[in-house]
Amino acid sequence: xxxxxxxxxxxxxxxxxxxxxxxxxxxxxxxxxxxxxxxxxxxxxxxxxxxxxxxxxxxxxxxxxxxxxxxxxxxxxxxxxxxxxxxxxxxxxxxxxxxxxxxxxxxxxxxxxxxxxxxxxxxxxxxxxxxxxxxxxxxxxxxxxxxxxxxx
Length: 152
Hints:
Layout: E1 9-15, E2 17-18, E3 21-29, E4 32-36, E5 39-41, H1 48-60, E6 62-75, E7 85-97, E8 106-113, H2 114-119, H3 128-138
Parallel strand pairs: 1-7
Antiparallel strand pairs: 1-5, 2-3, 3-4, 3-8, 6-7
C-alpha cells in the first residue's frame, strides 16, 4: 500500500507600510476575531504575484503592487496534524482604497503602528504575523526576479 503524498498548502501574503503603520486585516476565524496580513491561498493557474494582488484587493480593497519577495515561511499550526502552510510574503505599495465589499470573514482593513501590532499579539492569526513585520523592518527582501516566470 503506497503512502499518500504530503501536500502543503501554498499561501501568499502582502506587507506594506505607510507612515510607520502596517496594513492588516481584522477577520473572523472559527468564531475568533484575529489580525493577519492580507493573505490567502494560491488558486490553480495563478502565479504567486497574481495571487497576492488578488488576495490583497479582495481583503482590503487596495490594489497592491508587489516590489519584492520578503520571505518564505513554513508554518504548522498543529503538531498533531500534517497540515502545513508555505507562505510567500511580498512587500509592496498600495494606492487609494477602492469602493466595494471585503471578502467573506474580513471585518476591516486597518493600518496599525508597530507598537499596536505588538500589543495585539494575542489576537494574531498566527505567529507569522509579527515575524513577517519584524522581517520587513530588518531587510529589503529579494528582487521579484528570484521567482521564475517561465513555468507559471
